[in-house]
């Protein structure tokens, strides 16, 4: 006989993973629309959003870190950054004492673009979040952190080699 606690955990896992999968699909669609709106390739728009968000939280990305975040080779990332830089969407700077360290920053127009495009979503999310207490939001943030850490641990342990044919 199945343990009711196990059944409940499985039920919650399935529901939560389904909602997160739907969020991922919606986020991907929003990113695709942002790319179309800016007349960019979707990978370029994804990189631009990563650069903007990292900068927005006070932790600008290096080209190597961006490469990891968007799963591109260093050569492909360099070509992407060159395109974004030529278009005025980003700039690179060497503000660290170690002048070899390059950080990526969004160009002045990008702030306008992101505010215009993502502003309505931010307004709706803010309105939705007002329905929850600070304690509930703290619990949800903790849950998401734990969930993401769990996924990262699994990804780190997984073998990246293709499955052998049987």
TrEMBL record:
Q: Which Gene3D superfamilies match?
A: Winged helix-like DNA-binding domain superfamily/Winged helix DNA-binding domain (1.10.10.10)
Domain HTH marR-type positions: 33-137
Q: Which SUPFAM superfamilies match?
A: Winged helix' DNA-binding domain
Enumerate the InterPro entries for this protein.
HTH_MarR-typ (IPR000835), MarR/SlyA-like (IPR039422), WH-like_DNA-bd_sf (IPR036388), WH_DNA-bd_sf (IPR036390)
Highest taxon in the source lineage? Bacteria
Q: Which UniProt keywords apply?
A: DNA-binding
Q: Provide any one GO MF term from the record.
A: DNA binding
Output the GO biological process annotations, alphabetical, semicolon-separated.
response to stress
The protein in question is named MarR family transcriptional regulator
């Amino acid at each position: 006989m199945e343990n009711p606690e196990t059944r409940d955990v499985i039920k919650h896992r399935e529901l939560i993973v389904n909602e997160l999968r739907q969020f991922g699909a919606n986020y991907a669609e929003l990113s695709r629309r942002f790319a179309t709106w800016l007349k960019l390739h979707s990978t370029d728009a994804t990189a631009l959003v990563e650069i903007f968000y990292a900068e927005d939280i006070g932790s600008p990305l290096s080209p190597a870190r961006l490469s990891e975040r968007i799963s591109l080779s260093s050569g492909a990332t360099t070509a992407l950054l060159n395109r974004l830089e030529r278009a005025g969407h980003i700039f690179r700077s060497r503000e660290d004492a170690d002048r070899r360290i390059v950080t990526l920053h969004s160009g002045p127009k990008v702030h306008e673009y992101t505010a215009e495009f993502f502003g309505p979503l931010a307004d709706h999310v803010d309105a939705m979040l007002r329905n929850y207490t600070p304690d509930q939001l703290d619990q949800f943030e903790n849950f998401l952190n734990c969930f993401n850490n769990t996924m990262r641990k699994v990804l780190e342990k997984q073998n990246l080699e293709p499955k052998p044919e049987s």
